[in-house]
Amino acid sequence: MLNSITDVKGLKVGHASDYTGYTGCTVILCEGGAVCGIDVRGSASGTRQVDALNMNHIVEQVHAILLSGGSSFGLDAAAGVVRYLEERGIGFDVGIARIPIVPTAVIFDLFFGDAKTRPTPEMGYKACVDAKETVKEGSIGAGTGATVGKLFEVTRGMKGGLGTSGVVLPDGLAVGALVVVNAFGDIIDNITGRIIVGVRASEESLEFANTVNCLKKGFVKKQFGLVNTTLGVVATNARFNKKEITKIAQMAQGGLVRTISPVHTTFDGDLVFALSIGEHEADINRVGVLSEFVIAEAIKRAVKKADGFGILPAFRDISKGWKVTR
After folding, report:
1. The domain containing residue 10 runs over which residues?
2. Largest CA distance in the chain
3. Is pLDDT at 265 greater than 70 in this prediction?
4. Whole-angstrom Cα distance, residue 146 to residue 33?
5. How far apart are CA 162 and CA 156, in angstroms?
6. Whole-structure pTM over 0.90, yes or no?
């Protein structure tokens, strides 16, 4: 057991990261095809080819999921994933060609690094080449420039990142998740109820201001809000159709509710993809509950493994103090 989304056999994960501009992309390859659903709860999402996930759409399977930084500019990275899959003859067969189906979603990370640096098709291709079963976490791939706690803008926030988690049960059922955490709100330990990372009292402080309490007191964010999004992918080796796997994506959103506060705001583009890749027989509600669990675990791992690069404090800096070094 890898304690990652790749505990679901048939999946590989790859990253491409730019540590000069602080952005990147992450691909989840399912080259044999997977039934996919999506649930969008935030009001500021940026996506590509998610229309194929509609239950009335003729396409039955996807061949990769791409998560990217760079806001809408980062959607271009999907072209590299499509090229990688096409070169290998992978895609929806239309007779004269096989068309790779690659639903894509982005986060806004332009405030953390160089706003002119965005994931490119070359980075999308590189992420595919890098894909393997062992998943690296933290400030890597789409999590490179991710941040959290932005009621008072990024400078009083903390570092977000990318995390994964998985469970394999004695009967063979496997459920895994991968999450890119770039939230407007604070990240909560759902066991203790305490804030792990979030908005700070000042730019120099490591004391949490508590976003919900600030909102209750009347502090509001009025600036145009496409700067936040948590992107989740859950996967299972259980066999489901589009309608059923979409319901699992909906239930998996409970993992965001348990660990992000507030969540699904007008400033977030929160969404969850769900993948069914396998033939295991399983109850939809059982898989939904497990999906909520692995999403919550992946969110906590994402911020605990993040690196602030001396630009913003990360979870790892709380116990040892922090100061700007860049």
Report:
1. 5-317
2. 61
3. yes
4. 29
5. 20
6. yes
